[in-house]
Amino acid sequence: MKKLFISCFAMLCMMRAEAGTQKVRVLLDWFVNPNHASLFAAQYSGAFTREGLAVDLIAPADSASVPLLLAAGKADIAVSYQPQLYTLVEKKVPVIRVGTLIDQPLNTLTTLSSSIHSLADFKGKSIGYAIPGFEDIAIKQMFIHAGVDPRSVTLVNLNMAATTALLTHRIDGAMTIYRNYELISLQDKGVHPVVFRPEQSGIPAYDELILLAQQDEAKKPWIGAFLDALDQGTAWLKAHPQQAWQAFIKRYPEMNTPLNHQAWQATLPVFAQKSAAFSAERYQRMGDFLQQNRVISQIAPLSRYVQQVEKR
Q1: Per-residue pLDDT tens over the stretch 23-38
Q2: Does 170 share its domain with 231?
Q3: Do residues 231 and 195 share a domain?
Q4: From residue 51, how far is each of 55, 131, 312 by CA, in Å?
Q5: CA 170 – CA 138 distance, rounded (Å)
Q6: Cα separation of 170 and 154, whole Å?
Q7: Residue 166 domain-assigned (yes or no)
Q8: Each residue's pLDDT tens digit, 182-214
Q9: What is the pLDDT of residues 68-84, one digit of tens each?
Q10: Same structural domain, 132 and 89
């Protein structure tokens, strides 16, 4: 009888614990990769569990639909990009930024041509890009900033084949060369990339990866708990990078390649240590940039883009 009582009591405690657990579906921006290491670390280290959260990391079938799926209630958090947020707001998609995953740009304009040493050397050349409405505009503005007529350059929409296009000399430069992955991949192939960083060439600095929530969920207490756990996971990741890597490739064996390991190490320094923090000035500058280049027709109040989350 005593054993039965203890067993029932333990089961009751478990049921109460489960009832108090907030389930959170995190829709990633792409397939699981080193950019998501801090989310994985928060999950693996038990940080989410300690904050009363049961978190699922979900890779999307279609990365372009991620914010819309979030708005439709198919996820609770979505990984997105700061420049994309402005167009979502303009289209009245009811999502808002609640946190930051990677707080600096990763994209570069890169060439493998030995004759190109400055932006002026791209005159008469071709440059590929993958994200219409931002990367193509950024390229043009980089040239204007350098005093070069952007009409002297041919822009080519490459989708996501920039590395191959560079290596096969289909193009002379590419904008979609991320400094923590494609750039490493090129260097591993023995070539010598020349890199131009957009934020050093007239493009406002921005947060590469941000976390979105539905507008009507953004003030809920579980959001603060989620960001607390994420910061704990990021701290654990930076303190135990190799242990985290081994756990990551055990969970995702398809990621166990030398390139992904290098990308993992290259991404560690760029994770936001305080995920709730943001720069109002940075958000304003990017809004101004997008409006001036007619990507958006008007800038909404900052409170429409960013929910200031009070962490627990």
Answers
A1: 999 999 999 999 999 9
A2: no
A3: no
A4: 11, 37, 9
A5: 21
A6: 12
A7: yes
A8: 999 999 999 999 999 999 999 999 999 999 999
A9: 999 999 999 999 999 99
A10: no
